[in-house]
Structure formats: C-alpha cells, structure tokens
From TrEMBL:
InterPro entries: LOR, LOR_sf, Tubby-like_C
Native organism: Eleusine coracana subsp. coracana
Domain of life: Eukaryota
Family: Belongs to the LOR family.
Identification of the protein by name: Protein LURP-one-related 15
Signal peptide (from-to): none
Pfam families given in the database record: LOR (PF04525)
PANTHER family reported in the protein's UniProt record: OS07G0230700 PROTEIN, PTHR31087
Length: 214
C-alpha cells in the first residue's frame, strides 16, 4: 500500500483538516498512538489508547454486562466522545457512530460497513451522515486486519490518511494482550481513526464468534 509523501519522506497532509469528530483532535503533525486490547473485564474497557509518552488518551468502555453491540469511546477523564452501535442482523456488519453518548439519529456522525459480504482481505467503507445514497464512500480501509496491517484512505482514492500495524512481543503473547500501533497523518482526526480501529476489531471478532457456533 502506497502513501503520499512530501519532501524528505514525511507523510503528505490532506489539503484541509479532516475534522470528523472535532477540530481539536486534528494535529498539524503525525500522531503516533498505541492501542492495547485486553481480555474483557468488569471495570475497564476493551481498549486503551495511549500516546507516544504512554499517557492514556482514550478508552473504550465494554463491560461484561453491557449490551454487546454497543461501545462507548471516552476520553482520559471518562467523558463520552462517541457511541458506536452495530446494526443487528446486518450482513455487512454495519456500525453507526454517534456524537457523545447519544444514539439519536440527529447525532449520527458516520457509518462503517464491510464493502462486501465475503472477504479474503479487509475492505471497509465509511460514509458520513450526510451521504445517504452511499454510492461513493467518504473514507475507506483496506489491508489485512488479521495481521493488523491496514491503511485508511480519503474517499475512494489512494490518498492515505492513517495506517495501523500489529506489535508482536513475547509479553503480549504470554498475557494474551493484543497491541498495535496507529500512525495518524497530519491534520487528520485521530479520534475518528481510533474509532474505526475499534470497529475493525468488532467486525473481525464477529467472524470468529460465528466459527465458534459451528
């Protein structure tokens, strides 16, 4: 997968800030994040997102006794930023993302779903709330999520805005912890990208859950 690069090999920023959630989450430089997924617990969320210094930036609440098809992304202080819900019985594993802790249609920000029902590699299309026809995606994700290698693109183009790679360590395997890195390009909403990573994991976890039922 090829990205657009400027002088000196640095990622080329989009022509304007991509503030899907909020402009405050768009930095004028590359934002490196680490996403850690732990076994589900009662007190903590499924995911913890940390910055380059190890500080907690985001968490995803997903307690054992919560509704399985609903995830809430909160900031370091525990304030809800986004609510992600899966459409039940959707063949494309369609997820809808709302502002704050709302699931009201007026607060819908974007929708993400598999580009096709049967996939050998990862292909997810993202549509903003105003794109009701969904003829052309506003963003897309392509790659191989089982190897935790995916790229995020602007629209149906080759302009890369972020990428993720799996981080293998002996400790991670030993304690059943899943860790991967995200590189968010300049002026791109890092909360938006983090939410898409959570949705990717949920989509592929559903596939494994289906195998468990056979």
């Amino acid at each position: 997968m090829e990205a657009s690069y400027g002088y000196g090999g640095a990622p080329m920023a989009p022509p304007a800030p991509l503030a899907v959630v909020s402009p405050q989450f768009c930095a004028p430089y590359v934002v490196p994040l680490t996403v850690t997924k732990r076994p589900l617990s009662i007190s903590d969320g499924d995911f913890t997102v940390t910055d380059a210094n190890g500080g907690v930036v985001l968490r995803v609440n997903g307690a054992v006794f919560s509704v399985r098809h609903r995830r809430v992304l909160v900031d370091a202080a525990g304030q809800p930023i986004l609510t992600m819900t899966e459409k039940v019985f959707s063949l494309h594993n369609r997820w809808e993302v709302f502002r704050g802790d709302s699931t009201n249609a007026n607060d819908l920000l974007f929708t993400a779903k598999k580009a096709s029902i049967v996939q050998l590699k990862t292909a997810v299309d993202v549509f903003m709330a105003g794109n009701t026809s969904e003829h052309v995606c506003d963003f897309k994700i392509r790659g191989n999520y089982f190897e935790k290698t995916c790229a995020f693109y602007l629209g149906n183009s080759d302009t890369m805005i972020a990428q993720t790679n799996r981080k293998y360590t002996f400790t991670n395997v030993l304690i059943e912890k899943d860790t991967f890195t995200i590189t968010v390009f300049p002026h791109v909403d890092y909360v938006f990208i983090a939410a898409l990573v959570v949705i990717l994991d949920e989509i592929h976890r559903v596939r494994f859950d289906s195998f468990d039922l056979l």
